[in-house]
Design brief:
- The chain is built from six helices and six strands.
- By secondary structure, the protein is an alpha/beta fold.
- It has a six-stranded mixed β-sheet with strand order 2-1-3-6-4-5.
- The longest helix has 26 residues.
């Protein structure tokens, strides 16, 4: 169990979060690999340069072959000349790739464990919002000490909560089923709305239990 700050309408207190399913070690190398993958998947890859066949110069010979004392030139598109084509320049490409889902779940567990150990996890009850209120959202984060940067994790999509927090700089709202290691590490603080931690641990623990059962069944068959 890990004790964290918990915001309610009556004030800020403390609650315990069950961290037993997150493991004992923060796997830094795995976290680095996951962050590199998520960053690569965000690259647009639209960079492009022109080869000599795509430049806009004329294809006529600039001067005669012999007698000028210059090098022999077939046209002005040569990569050697200024404004000519580019040799082996960048072309549009897809940088995205995928890691195994088991590795991504392990990376998320390590990211959550690291945040808990660093004291950068807080919790909050769902605020009573008849209409979206950015002022109230800012007050909640200030009371929790998470005003600098935070990711808010909810159980389901909450439109009022989303509209309240989305105007704050460096604050993002996501569902527990969509959370990944990159988002956890990108933000300074992790704020868990009541019920979201159970959804997270169920998402990670359920997969882990399924993998153990499969391994046991495979061992019994062999």
């Amino acid at each position: 169990m890990t004790e964290v700050s918990h915001w309610t309408e009556s004030g800020v207190g403390k609650i315990d979060l069950d961290s037993r399913g997150l493991g004992e070690i923060v796997r830094l190398k795995l976290l680095r690999e996951a962050v590199l993958m998520y960053e690569a998947n965000q690259r647009q890859g639209t960079h492009s340069t022109k080869t000599r066949s795509e430049t806009a110069y004329t294809g006529h010979k600039p001067y005669k072959q012999k007698g000028t004392g210059n090098a022999r030139r077939g046209d002005r598109n040569s990569p050697i000349l200024r404004g000519g084509g580019i040799i082996h320049g960048p072309r549009p490409r897809d940088y995205s790739y995928a890691m195994p889902r088991r590795a991504l779940r392990a990376a998320l567990r390590s990211a959550l464990l690291g945040k808990l150990r660093d004291g950068e996890v807080c919790a909050m009850a769902r605020p009573e919002l008849s209409t979206p209120s950015t002022r109230k959202a800012a007050g909640i984060l200030a009371a929790l000490g998470c005003a600098a940067s935070a990711i808010i994790v909810t159980v389901e999509r909450d439109e009022a909560l989303l509209r309240s927090f989305r105007n704050l700089p460096r604050v993002h709202v996501t569902r527990a089923c969509d959370l990944n290691a990159f988002e956890v590490l990108f933000h300074r603080n992790l704020v868990i709305v009541d019920g979201a931690w159970d959804a997270l641990t169920e998402r990670l623990g359920k997969r882990l239990r399924q993998g153990k059962h499969a391994a046991v069944e495979a061992g019994s068959e062999s």
